[in-house]
Amino acid sequence: MGRPTKYKSEYCEKVVELMSKGMSKNEVAANLGVDQVTLYNWADKHIPFFKAIKRGEQLSLAWWESEGRRSLREKEFNHVLWYMNMKNRHGWRDKQEVTGANGDPIVIKDINAGD
Questions:
Q1: pLDDT at position 12
Q2: How many CB atoms lie within 10 A of CB 99?
Q3: 10 Å Cβ neighbour count for 89?
Q4: Which is more confident, 98 or 34?
Q5: How many Å from the N-terminal Cα to the C-terminal Cα in the chain?
Q6: Which of 97, 24, 92, 17 is CA-nearest to residue 57?
Q7: Domain spans of the chain?
Q8: How many Å separate Cα 95 from the centre of its chain?
Q9: What pLDDT score was predicted for residue 27?
Q10: CA distances from 33 to 29, 38, 41 (A)
């Protein structure tokens, strides 16, 4: 049967609060006294917790974007470290590729050109 869960509904609010300060899911797990896998398990089993994690991810990204924007003109700002964080934690890429259906290239037709 397994151990009883440590999950509490008030963790939803805590997740949003912590991630709104830029924290990662790993930091949140540490603050809640569990490992990161437990967060994923709770998200699978509790819809409100899943939604809290998703909202937290959005807020964490917004915090990091704001932090970067505010710090751009400061000499001490380590833009490389900030950029690597954005790539590794938030999925930023150097190049964005746009494709059509089934991964095919997008075809743009000039309707005035006449085939």
A1: 97
A2: 9
A3: 16
A4: 34
A5: 68
A6: 24
A7: 11-91
A8: 19
A9: 96
A10: 6, 10, 14
Predicted TM-score (pTM) of the model is: 0.73
**Pick from 53, 55, 4: nearest CA to 26:** 53
Average pLDDT, the chain: 87
Model pLDDT, residue 87:
87
Q: Which residue has the tokens 């899911």?
A: 25
State the greatest distance between any 2 C-alpha atoms of the chain, in Å, as a whole number: 70
Phi, psi of 78, deg, nearest 5: -90, 90
Query: Please, what's the b/e burial string for 45-83 (b: 16 or more CB within 10 A of its CB; e: otherwise)?
Result: ebeebbebbeebbebbbeebeeeeeeeeeeeeeeeeebe
8 A C-beta contact, residue 18 and residue 31: yes
pLDDT digits (tens, 9 = 90+) for 59-107: 999 999 999 988 988 889 998 888 888 888 878 777 767 777 777 777 7
DSSP 92: -
H or E stretch including 28? helix 25-32
